[in-house]
Specification:
Layout: E1 6-12, H1 14-17, H2 28-35, E2 40-46, H3 52-66, E3 74-80, H4 92-97, H5 101-117, E4 121-125, H6 132-141, H7 153-170, E5 174-175, H8 177-185, H9 189-193, H10 211-228, H11 253-260
Parallel strand pairs: 1-2, 1-3, 3-4, 4-5
Length: 264
C-alpha cells in the first residue's frame, strides 16, 4: 500500500463547479468526498459557462496533469455537460456557449473515448430540466435580452438523449437527470415539455441547482456506481491505514505502518 491516492474526477460546467459550495446546507462534492474519504481523492474540474467543445479540448490537459504513466490512477469520472450546449440565446455570450447537436454528439464521443482509453470508468450525466421562466427573469436581471428563450425542456431533452445514445454505444452508464427530476416532481411529461412546471425548488435561476437537486444527482450517481462499478463503491475500496481503534496500544508509528502493509 502507498499513500498515493487514486482519483475520482467530477468534470463539467458551472453545475459541477458550484457543487463545492454549500447550497441549502448541502454540497455535492463534499458528500462524494465523504463517501470516498481515505479511499479516493475527489477532484472537482467544473468550468462555468463552458460547453462540450471546450471540455473536449480541456480533458487531454487534465489527463496530462492527473493521469500516471500506467494509466491506472483515475478510477472514476463523471462527465456532466450539455446545459450550455443547448442554449440558444442570440447574443454574444449565448453564441459562445451554444453547440450544434451533431457537433455535441461528436464531442461526447470524444470525451468518452478519452476516458476509456485512459482506463477510466466514466459516468455520463445528461442535461436536467430547464426552468424557462426563472431563466428569463435571471437574464433580465443581468441586462440581457433575447428574441428566443435561453432553452426549453424539449431542447434539453434532445441533448440528454444524445448523451444517452453515446453512453449506450460505448456501454457506459448514463444518468437521466431530466427524467429523475421529472419523477421527483411527479410531473406529467407533456406538462414538462410545455415548460409549465415550477422548478424553483430544484433551481435558483432555472439552471443552477439547489441542494434538493444536488441530492437527487447524488442518489443517481450512487446507484450507477453500485450497478456498473460495484468494486468502486466507496465502502468496497481499501481504507488508507487501519482505523485508530484497531491499533495496538504499545505499537510505535513505524510498527503500525509495517504491520498494516509496507509503505512505498
Amino acid at each position: 500500500m502507498t499513500l498515493n491516492y487514486d482519483k475520482f474526477i467530477l468534470l463539467g460546467d458551472s453545475i459541477t463547479e458550484y457543487s463545492v459550495y454549500s447550497t441549502d446546507n448541502f454540497s455535492l462534492s463534499q458528500a462524494i468526498q465523504n463517501l470516498y474519504s481515505r479511499r479516493l481523492d475527489v477532484l472537482v474540474r467544473g468550468f462555468g459557462g463552458y460547453n462540450s467543445t471546450h471540455l473536449a479540448y480541456i480533458l487531454p490537459e487534465i489527463l496530462k496533469a492527473e493521469l500516471n504513466a500506467d494509466k491506472n490512477n483515475i478510477k472514476l469520472m463523471t462527465i456532466f455537460i450539455g446545459t450550455n450546449d443547448a442554449s440558444q440565446v442570440d447574443d454574444r455570450m449565448g453564441r459562445m456557449q451554444s453547440v450544434d447537436i451533431q457537433k455535441f454528439q461528436e464531442n461526447i464521443e470524444t470525451l468518452c473515448e478519452l476516458a476509456l482509453s485512459s482506463n477510466i470508468k466514466p459516468i455520463f450525466i445528461g442535461p436536467a430540466l430547464h426552468g424557462k421562466k426563472l431563466v428569463l427573469d435571471a437574464l433580465k436581471a443581468e441586462g440581457r435580452s433575447s428574441n428566443v428563450p435561453w432553452s426549453s425542456n424539449s431542447r434539453n431533452l434532445e441533448y440528454s438523449q444524445v448523451v444517452e445514445l453515446v453512453a449506450k454505444k460505448y456501454n457506459v452508464p448514463f444518468v437521466n437527470l431530466w427524467e429523475a427530476f421529472r419523477l421527483w416532481g411527479k410531473w406529467d411529461k407533456e406538462e414538462v415539455l410545455a415548460d409549465e412546471v415550477d422548478l424553483k425548488t430544484l433551481m435558483h435561476d432555472g439552471i443552477h441547482f439547489t441542494g434538493a437537486a444536488y441530492k437527487i444527482l447524488l442518489q443517481e450517481l450512487e446507484a450507477k456506481v453500485e450497478e456498473w462499478y460495484p468494486e468502486l463503491v466507496g465502502s468496497n475500496l481499501e481504507l488508507k491505514l487501519n482505523r485508530w481503534n484497531l491499533l495496538e496500544e504499545e505499537e510505535l508509528p513505524e510498527v503500525i505502518f509495517k504491520n498494516h502493509k509496507r509503505l512505498d
